[in-house]
Amino acid sequence: MHETHLIEPIIKGISQHAKEEGARVVKKVHIKVGLLTGVKEDSFQETFSVLTKGTMLENAELEFTFFPGTIIQVLSFDVE
Question: Which of helix, strand or coil describes residue 21?
Fold first, then answer.
């Protein structure tokens, strides 16, 4: 799970922002992933599921956009 160090700050940032907005749960997260990061969608999804257990992102749907770059960026997230 080499994605752990990439995903933990995403979870922390989304959780903090969502709580500040008064959200109870995060329903969907849209992520932009650079192909040169070496991140694979299925591995990212699995690691995300493990790391979000017990958080407001636990059942969030992940939506990916891949591009020829070297960064991972949260484009948007939907809350309830």
Answer: coil
Per-residue model confidence as pLDDT tens digits over 2-13 = 789 999 999 999
State which amino acid sits at residue 65: T
Asked whether the beta carbons of 77 and 28 are under 8 A apart, the reply is: yes
Q: Where are the beta strands (DSSP E) in 1-80?
A: 26-34, 61-67, 72-79
Alpha carbon distance 67, 33 (integer Å): 6
* Whole-structure pTM value: 0.92
Q: How many domains does the chain have?
A: 1
Structural tokens at position 10: 């995403």
For residue 11, give its domain range: 4-79
Q: Do residues 56 and 23 touch, judged by C-beta distance below 8 A? A: yes
CATH of the domain at 30: 3.30.2320.50
